[in-house]
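Margin note from the TA: students keep mixing up input and output lines. Inputs are the sequences; the output is the structure of the whole complex. Example:
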Amino acid sequence: MAGFTQLFVPGPTNVPEVVRQAMNMPMEDMRAPDYPDFTRGLFTDLMKVFRNETGRVFIFPSSGTGAWESAITNTLSPGDRVLMSRFGQFSHLWVDMCERFGLDVDVVDVEWGTGCPVEIYAERLLQDKEHRIKAVFVTHNETATGVTSDVAGVRAALNAAKHPALLFADGVSSIGSIDFRQEDWGVDCAVSGSQKGFMLPPGLGFLSVSQKALAAAKTAGHKRCYFSFEDQIRANDTGYFPYTPAVQLLRGLRVALDLLHEEGLEAVFERHNRLATGVRKAVEAWGLKLCAKEAKWNSDTVSAVLVPEGIDSAEIVRRAHYGYQTSLGVGLNKVAGKVFRIGHLGWVNDVMMCGAISAAEMALRDCGVKVQPGSGVGAALEHYRLSAQPSL
Ligand code: PLP
């Protein structure tokens, strides 16, 4: 097939050519005397993306799931009560992990297409006078449904109840793409991974922790080894990892962090909002709806588009793949067959998004959805044209 294959799944995302080139390197010695000169800068600059000013950040040769595991096993003990909510495949998997670790999980199940139920959290925290809840979890961006939750609202609920529980946030598909402020929001464990907003291949798990999380690690009862904070603290301090690091990915990370900082985080967030708005305008022009039930839940990194009754969304994804060399995201779990997803995060721009929208539009028509030809892409490109930065 000629031309590029278009990748619009919400992770792994497109890797910029400069990042790819930086990883095309001869192997290097991760115990070289000057290796810490390189690794220390990674920690410092990664902290800036999380907006963590007073804690630490750890880099694991794992995916985001490893960073989840590190957060849980280092700060909690078996049997600890945790407050969680489930509204999509990834919040579901996080609940599943906590249950498998023997935590006493209080799960609030809410409709998929909505997000973290801050009011219910607020009530539970107020009622918990004995402070049995040790940690509160929020999936900042539910990648399966395209829903962003209010982490600051959860912090406000904790503060209003004067509750000392730790706050965990899953930012795998949000950090580095949309506003996330670990310090301001008092997030104790913030998790992310390399393959989304960080514009890298999969293979690095990031865990950014507060001083409170580091203190909790001193008494937490879970066993841990590969994902131990203690070893990672040493890595922070010495610049040498406790085991063989993913040296190529780290070289790629250097360049990806430079790209994020050169563009500026605020500009990155603004770009994601512009791109997402174009996709939302296309969906509206098609006469379709998002899985996100209200505008307040809309994610600027991924849109899950509901297909009409009687249409299988997996067929649309299949058609885009085979007919138009374009990868869109399938529906997962409860929304399998009901939604397809367009990822609009990481290294993407207006014209790339118009390509994704064109492929989706053609595939929708091929699968019998009655959308007007050119309606979605027309709405998106007019939005992009009118909101583009004047450069001449
Ligand atoms: N959390 C969210 C919100 C995700 O989107 C994903 C993966 O897509 C994960 C967690 C799991 O991360 P990983 O696949 O990197 O282990």
